[in-house]
Amino acid sequence: MIGVTLESVSKRFPGTGDAAAVDGVDISIDAGEFFTLLGPSGCGKTTTLRMVAGFYFPTSGRIRFGTEDVTRKPPNRRDTGMVFQNYALFPHMSVAQNVGYGLKIRKVRGAEARRRIAEALEQVHLGGYGDRRIDQLSGGQQQRVALARALVIRPRTLLLDEPLSNLDAKLREETRAEIRRIQREAGITSIYVTHDQAEAMAMSDRIAVMEAGRVQQIGTPQEIYHRPANTFVARFIGRSNVLSLPVLAAGAESVDVRLPNGASRTVAAPPGHDLAGSDTALVSIRPEHIGLAAPDDPEALPGRITDLEFTGMATNLTVEVSGQELMVAAVEVPGGPAVGDRIGLRLPAARMWVVRP
């Protein structure tokens, strides 16, 4: 197993002026790690993956596999396995022929090739499917054939570019669990690209959230969800309320803020923040962390329900509080409230976090 390192990697395409598709990306991926590049369309995540694969060369910066500099090496000299969004399977070949294509290119033939193809198909739970045609397989099975083809060459790094985007919701959940199982068993360093936050959170050891060609935050799913670095990450990962609150006092890793009802909260803040008394802090809190109370509860923020949605697992409320709208996700909502009703909200300080703009 090897790690992958990107050092100040940028990519500019001809004819785009000064705009960079990828701008100064620094990422260090551990050996055996499942690492995800997450972000909206056009954020640079696929371009970054293609530079790791060797399909694009960086305009500047370096890419290393372990201690080896591969920045200018072509794809066939990087020893990577790639799973594409559309699978890129050959319809005129059998399953076994598709899986063994990379071995044929590498001149691995005969009994050794057959053995490795059979092992790869067993690994993705498709043992006995070798003679079938590609058009006889479901979308999920085709995706696993593409994964077996990438694994059979025993690559140093596995690269996956939105491999689940063509599957329906239920099959996506099942297949992402299979990919994670296979990756753990193989112990292979893997880089995964997706725009789906739930997919990234469920599968990854760590995530790099990208926006406009830059990495906004790198961390575990728990770190990114509970301690977003800025307002973009807070709002892109799941749902989050970001409140503008006056700062009463500031410490090294916390600030005291005033809530709309006049109460104060001591809220954790990232080290190195530059907030001071009389500033305005941006404070994030997730909808599921807000509690409900009676509208006249002196400890609660009084508000008015402006929207209500029942999803089965929870009731989503939109509550207006002093001109700011808060999203609330409640498992149980006593009293059967309706739009227009008054309600109280409890904001626990332990669930609040200062974010940068």
Q: How much of the sequence is in beta strands?
A: 25-35%
Mean pLDDT: 94
Radius of gyration: 25 Å
The overall strand count is: 20
Q: What coarse outline follows from CA principal-axis ratios? A: elongated
The biggest beta sheet is recorded as: 6 strands, mixed
Structural class: alpha+beta
| Neighbour order of strands in the largest sheet | 6-7-8-3-9-10
**Terminus-to-terminus distance:** 38 Å
Order of helices and strands: EEEHEEEHHHHEHEHEEHHEEEEEEEEEE
**Please, how many helices?**
9
Uncertain residue segments: none
Fraction in helix: 10-25%
Could you describe the 3D structure shown?
The protein is an alpha+beta fold and 357 residues long. Helix content is 24%, strand content 33%. The chain contains 9 helices and 20 strands. It has helices spanning 45-53, 95-99, 101-105, 110-123, 139-152, 169-186, 197-203, 221-226, 231-236; strands at residues 4-11, 22-29, 34-38, 60-65, 68-69, 80-83, 157-161, 189-194, 206-211, 214-219, 241-250, 254-258, 264-268, 280-285, 291-293, 301-310, 315-321, 324-330, 342-346, 353-355. The strands form 4 sheets. It has a 6-stranded mixed beta sheet with strand order 6-7-8-3-9-10, with helices on both faces. Strands 13-12-11-14-20 form a 5-stranded antiparallel beta sheet. The protein has a 5-stranded antiparallel beta sheet with strand order 15-19-16-17-18, with no helix packed on it. The longest helix is centred in the middle third of the chain and has 18 residues, at 169-186. It is elongated and about 80 Å long. It starts with a strand and ends with a strand. The mean pLDDT is 94.
